[in-house]
C-alpha cells in the first residue's frame, strides 16, 4: 500500500524556538522522513559593515552578532587583528579573557538547560536553571557594567580589570552556581521523565558527525574530541582541563556534555584567578593591520571561525564569520529523519540553535 | 597570518575536495572575498586542529563546481556565497536559488564590490 506523505512547516515562529528558523518536515504519519531548513529571517548583513566601520568600531559590531556569546565574537576578532599586527597581549589579559569567556560559557549552557527543560514542559527546572544563570549575569554586570554586551575586549588586550574585591564575589558566585548545578544535575541526568525524552532521540553517529562537520557539544556528544580551546589561545595552555566527550550521540549525551562543561567552566574560572599574574591588561596599538588571518575559538555552541583581510588602512577589507550553529545545521538535517513529530522540538533545541549568529 | 594555503584552479576544486576527504579532513567552511574584477574563494579544511586551505582566484561570472556532493555540509555556505556574491555553483545538492538569506526584493549580491549601504532614518522614506 502506498503511504501518503505530507509537509509540515516547523517554525519560523514556534514556542520552543527563541529565534526564527523554519524546517519543512516531510512526514509519513507521525514520523519525519526528511527535513529541509529555511533560514534568512534575521539576516542583517553585519559583515558588510566592515566597509564603513573602522577596525575598532567593528569590535562592537561583531559583539552584536550574538546576544549570548558576544564576548567570544569580540575575542575571536581581536585575536585575528592581534595576530596580523603581531601584538603580544599581556598575560593578565589572557587570564581575564578566560574568566569572562568561561562566564559566558556557563550562562550560555545554563540558558540552554533551562530552554531544554521548557521544551518538554518541565517549568520548575527551567526556572531553576535560569535562576542560576542570573547569578552569572549579575557578576557580568558587576565586573563589566553590562549583563551581555560586556565590551571588555579591545585590540591588544582588555579595557577593564577585575579588582580583588570583585574577584572574591566572582568566586562566591562560582561556588553558588556549582552547588545549584549539583542539585539540577540530579534531575537533568537521572530523572525518569527527562531521560525518557532524551535517551536514544536524535542520534548522530560519530563518523557521520565528523563527515558533515558537527562542532561543539553536538560533535563532542558523538565522540569527537574536538575543542578549539586546545589551540591554546588566551591562557588555556596554562590551565588544567580536558575535552569533555560522550559517545552515545543522542540528545541525552548532548545534555551530559553541557552539564559537564558547566562544571569545567567554573573550574577554569577558579584556576584562572589562582594563576593570574599582576600586570598590565593591554598593550598600545600603533598603525593598522595588513594581510590575512584565520582564527578559531571555542564558543559555547562550538567552533567559531573568523577570516579577516586587512589592507593597511583603518577599515578591514573583509570580515567573514562562520558560527557554530551554521555548522550544526547539516547535522540537524541528519538527526531528524526517523524521529516522531513530538521529538522534533527537543532535537532542534539539542543543537542549541542561535539563528542571529548563523545569519549575521 | 594565513598558513597552509594552496592555490588551485577551477578544475582543481573538486579534486582537492576529494583529496581532502580521502585524507580524512573535515570541511570547515568557505570564505569569499570580492577583489573587484575577480573573486577569491577559500576552502578551509581541518584535521586534528590543523587548518589547510585551498584558494581559488576566479573571474566574476564563472560557474564554480560545487563540492557539496563530496562534503554535504558545504551546501549551506555555497548557497550563502551565491546569495551574497552572486556566484553560481554547478551541481549543488540543495539549491535555494539565491534565497537562502535574502528575500524577494533584496538587492542582488549585496556583499559584492559596488554594493551600497543605504541608511534610512526612522520615519522617513
Output the radius of gyration of chain B.
16 Å
Helix/strand/pairing class of chain B, anyone?
alpha/beta
The CATH class label of chain A is Mainly Alpha
What is the total domain count of chain B? 1
Helix vs. strand class of chain A: alpha+beta
Level-2 CATH architecture of chain A: Orthogonal Bundle
Q: Share of helix among residues of chain B?
A: 10-25%
CATH class of chain B: Alpha Beta
Q: What share of the residues of chain A lie within helices?
A: 40-55%
- Mean model confidence by pLDDT of chain A: 90
- The proportion of residues in beta strands of chain B is 25-35%
Low-confidence stretches of chain A: none
Compute the separation of the termini of chain A in Å. Answer: 46 Å
Task: Specify the number of helices of chain B.
Answer: 2
> What kind of sheet is the major sheet of chain A?
3 strands, antiparallel
Instruction: Tell me the CATH topology of chain B.
Output: Beta Polymerase, domain 2
Tell me what the structure shows:
The complex is a heterodimer of chains A (360) and B (125). Chain A has 360 residues and is of the alpha+beta class. Chain A is built from twelve helices and eight strands. Chain A has a single domain, classed as Cytochrome-c3 Hydrogenase, chain B. A three-stranded antiparallel beta sheet of chain A has the order 1-2-3. Chain A is globular and about 70 Å long. By secondary structure, chain B is α/β, with parallel strands linked by helices. Chain B has a single domain, classed as Beta Polymerase, domain 2 (2-Layer Sandwich), CATH 3.30.460.80. In chain B, 18% of the residues lie in helices and 30% in strands. In chain B, a hairpin with a 2-residue loop joins β3 and β4. The longest helix of chain B is centred in the middle third of the chain and has 12 residues. The N and C termini of chain B lie far apart (44 Å). Classes of the chains: A alpha+beta (360), B alpha/beta (125). At the A-B interface, β6, β7, β8 and α10 of A face β2 and α2 of B.
Amino acid at each position: 500500500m502506498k503511504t501518503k506523505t505530507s509537509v509540515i512547516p516547523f517554525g519560523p515562529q514556534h514556542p520552543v524556538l527563541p529565534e526564527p528558523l523554519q524546517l519543512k518536515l516531510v512526514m509519513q504519519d507521525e514520523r519525519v522522513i526528511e527535513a529541509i531548513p529555511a533560514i534568512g529571517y534575521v539576516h542583517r548583513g553585519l559583515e558588510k559593515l566592515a566597509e564603513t566601520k573602522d577596525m575598532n568600531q567593528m569590535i562592537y559590531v561583531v559583539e552584536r552578532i550574538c546576544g549570548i556569546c558576544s564576548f567570544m565574537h569580540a575575542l575571536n576578532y581581536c585575536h585575528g587583528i592581534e595576530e596580523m599586527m603581531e601584538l603580544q597581549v599581556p598575560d593578565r589579559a589572557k587570564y581575564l579573557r578566560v574568566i569572562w569567556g568561561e562566564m559566558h560559557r556557563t550562562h550560555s549552557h545554563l540558558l540552554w538547560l533551562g530552554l531544554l527543560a521548557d521544551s518538554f514542559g518541565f517549568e520548575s527546572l527551567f526556572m531553576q536553571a535560569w535562576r542560576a544563570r542570573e547569578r552569572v549575569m549579575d557578576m557580568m554586570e558587576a565586573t563589566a557594567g553590562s549583563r551581555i554586551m560586556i565590551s571588555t575586549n579591545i585590540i591588544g588586550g582588555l579595557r577593564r580589570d577585575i579588582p580583588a574585591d570583585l574577584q572574591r564575589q566572582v568566586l562566591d558566585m562560582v561556588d553558588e552556581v556549582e552547588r545549584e548545578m549539583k542539585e539540577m544535575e540530579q534531575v537533568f541526568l537521572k530523572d525518569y521523565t527527562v531521560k525518557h525524552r532524551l535517551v536514544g532521540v536524535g542520534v548522530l553517529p560519530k563518523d557521520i558527525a565528523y563527515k558533515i562537520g558537527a562542532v561543539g557539544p553536538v560533535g563532542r556528544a558523538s565522540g569527537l574530541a574536538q575543542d578549539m580551546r586546545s589551540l591554546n589561545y588566551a591562557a588555556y595552555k596554562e590551565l588544567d582541563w580536558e575535552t569533555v566527550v560522550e559517545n552515545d550521540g543522542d540528545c541525552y549525551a548532548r545534555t551530559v556534555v553541557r552539564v559537564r562543561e558547566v562544571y569545567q567552566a567554573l573550574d577554569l574560572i577558579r584556576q584562572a584567578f589562582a594563576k593570574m599574574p599582576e600586570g598590565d591588561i593591554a598593550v598600545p596599538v600603533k598603525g593598522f593591520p595588513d594581510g590575512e588571518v584565520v582564527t578559531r575559538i571555542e564558543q559555547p555552541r562550538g567552533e567559531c571561525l573568523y577570516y579577516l583581510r586587512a589592507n593597511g588602512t583603518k577599515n578591514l577589507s573583509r570580515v567573514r564569520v562562520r558560527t557554530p550553529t551554521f555548522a550544526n545545521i547539516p547535522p540537524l538535517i541528519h538527526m531528524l529523519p526517523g524521529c516522531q513529530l513530538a521529538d522534533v522540538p527537543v532535537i532542534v533545541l539539542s543543537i542549541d540553535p542561535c539563528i542571529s549568529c548563523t545569519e549575521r | 597570518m594565513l598558513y597552509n594555503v594552496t592555490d588551485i584552479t577551477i578544475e582543481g576544486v573538486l579534486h582537492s575536495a576529494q583529496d581532502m576527504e580521502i585524507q580524512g579532513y573535515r570541511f570547515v567552511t568557505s570564505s569569499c572575498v570580492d577583489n573587484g574584477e575577480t573573486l577569491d574563494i577559500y576552502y578551509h579544511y581541518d584535521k586534528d586542529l590543523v587548518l589547510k586551505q585551498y584558494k581559488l582566484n576566479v573571474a566574476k561570472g564563472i560557474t564554480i563546481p560545487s563540492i557539496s556532493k563530496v562534503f554535504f555540509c558545504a551546501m549551506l555556505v555555497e548557497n550563502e556565497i551565491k546569495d551574497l556574491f552572486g556566484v553560481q555553483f554547478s551541481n549543488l545538492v540543495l539549491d535555494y536559488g539565491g534565497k537562502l538569506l535574502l528575500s524577494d526584493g533584496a538587492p542582488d549580491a549585496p556583499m559584492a564590490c559596488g554594493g551600497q549601504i543605504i541608511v534610512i532614518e526612522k520615519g522617513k522614506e
